């Protein structure tokens, strides 16, 4: 069972408000994430709001649900994935040239055993899947950077 913190970071030559507008529009998550195909907020983007999501990896497609755990305007957006107990976050920090964005996946309370079993059985094992997640984070951040710097 992995409880490793996965993380990626990028500097974007755009102000925090522009980057925040992209990240906090959850319907656009499919543009950034190579795995997310849909994310729909069931209410305003604020702590406590739930989302329904659709993910895809190759031929595998699966739904998830999340709950926004932290929303701090132009600073942090975090959500807990109910199916595996992980918390994903985007943190924005102003820099001299724009905004530094850090994407993190934490599993402070451990990943649910059923999730680890499924990853092991159908997704090549936890270490391989986690490497793929970090690659996906870097892709997501690069896509957000490209959109923000237009």
Fold blueprint:
Blueprint: E1 6-12, H1 16-23, H2 29-32, E2 36-41, E3 50-57, E4 60-72, E5 76-81, E6 87-95, E7 98-106, H3 113-122, H4 126-148
Antiparallel strand pairs: 1-7, 2-3, 3-4, 4-5, 5-6, 6-7
Helix pairs in contact: 1-4
In short:
The chain is α+β, with helices and mostly antiparallel strands and 150 residues long. 30% of the residues lie in helices and 39% in strands.
CATH architecture name? 2-Layer Sandwich
Rounded to an integer, what's the Rg over CA atoms?
Answer: 15 Å
Largest sheet: 7 strands, antiparallel
CATH class: Alpha Beta
Arithmetic mean pLDDT: 95
Q: Structurally, how many domains make up the residues?
A: 1
Strand content: 35-45%
**Count of runs of 4 or more consecutive helical residues:** 4
3D shape: globular
Strand order of the largest sheet: 1-7-6-5-4-3-2
The secondary-structure class comes to alpha+beta
Structural account:
The protein has 150 residues and is α+β, with helices and mostly antiparallel strands. It has a single domain (6-148), classed as START domain (Alpha-D-Glucose-1,6-Bisphosphate, Chain A, domain 4, 2-Layer Sandwich). It contains 4 helices and 7 strands; from the N terminus they run E-H-H-E-E-E-E-E-E-H-H. It has helices spanning 16-23, 29-32, 113-122, 126-148, and strands spanning 6-12, 36-41, 50-57, 60-72, 76-81, 87-95, 98-106. Strands 1-7-6-5-4-3-2 form a 7-stranded antiparallel sheet. Strand 4 (60-72) and strand 5 (76-81) form a beta hairpin. Helix 1 (16-23) crosses helix 4. The protein is globular, with a radius of gyration of 15 Å. This is SRPBCC family protein. It comes from Mycolicibacterium arenosum. InterPro entries: Polyketide_cyclase/dehydratase, START-like_dom_sf.
